[in-house]
Design a protein that fits this description.
- This protein is an alpha+beta fold.
- The protein has two domains: about 70 residues, no CATH class; about 130 residues, Roll (Archaeosine Trna-guanine Transglycosylase, Chain: A, domain 4).
- The protein has five helices and ten strands, in the order E-E-H-H-E-E-H-E-E-E-E-E-H-E-H.
- Strands 4, 5, 6, 7, 8, 9 and 10 form a seven-stranded mixed beta sheet that branches.
- Helix 1 runs antiparallel to helix 2.
- It starts with a strand and ends with a helix.
């Protein structure tokens, strides 16, 4: 996913070492029950970071490279209204916001293709409002699905994606101007504006 040797296929993202250090320092202060649920996110940050978080480097940012050929985007909707039956993305996303507040691991389910991997990006799509971007920090088998997802008929075979809090938010106008999806009826891959997104995010 990452490399320290620049090639023509790679692009750079800037990560603030001070933020990385702050996350790790705070992790040690969290209750033990929360440590495991957040460990994967911190491990990913450490892997993405080009230098140790306690480096004496005077630089405020470090360059980390990504291969455009391997990073994929997954998009999923956050509906405006509740559904009376079946999967309800509004209810499920509200649950994830509650988990975020409690410092529990945020998670989502994969598309029916089950091809997402660590280091990919999940896009949360909100019609006429915004989109937010979340790193996929770990991938678990379907047995790790939340009990509250039991009513999501037809999705029980989908792998579970551990996701980070949003690292980027984009308003609706910017999203559409990039060629982003005007409609999103379910979880699926993003291809038509992938290169433009990579240019902005990475």
């Amino acid at each position: 996913m990452t490399t320290k040797n620049n090639t023509h296929n790679t692009h750079s993202i800037q990560i603030d070492p001070k933020w990385v250090g702050l996350v790790i320092d705070n992790l040690e202060q969290l209750p033990h029950s929360l440590t495991e649920s957040t460990r994967n996110q911190v491990d990913l940050i450490a892997k993405l970071h080009d230098e140790p978080h306690n480096s004496a480097s005077k630089s405020s940012t470090s360059s980390v490279t990504f291969d455009k050929k391997t990073l994929s985007f997954l998009i999923t909707p956050w509906a405006k209204t509740y559904k009376k039956e079946g999967p309800c993305s509004k209810r499920d996303w509200e649950e994830q916001m509650e988990r975020k507040t409690r410092h529990d691991q945020m998670m989502w389910d994969d598309s029916k293709k089950n091809k997402s991997k660590v280091g990919d990006i999940l896009i949360c799509w909100r019609y006429m409002k915004e989109v937010t971007f979340h790193w996929i920090t770990d991938v678990k088998d379907p047995s790790q699905r939340l009990p509250t997802w039991s009513k999501n008929v037809g999705q029980h075979d989908r792998q579970v994606l551990f996701i980070s809090e949003e690292f980027k938010k984009m308003d609706w106008v910017e999203w559409i101007n990039l060629g982003g999806h005007k409609r999103c009826m379910g979880t699926g891959s993003v291809t038509k504006c992938k290169d433009k997104l990579l240019d902005i995010l990475i």
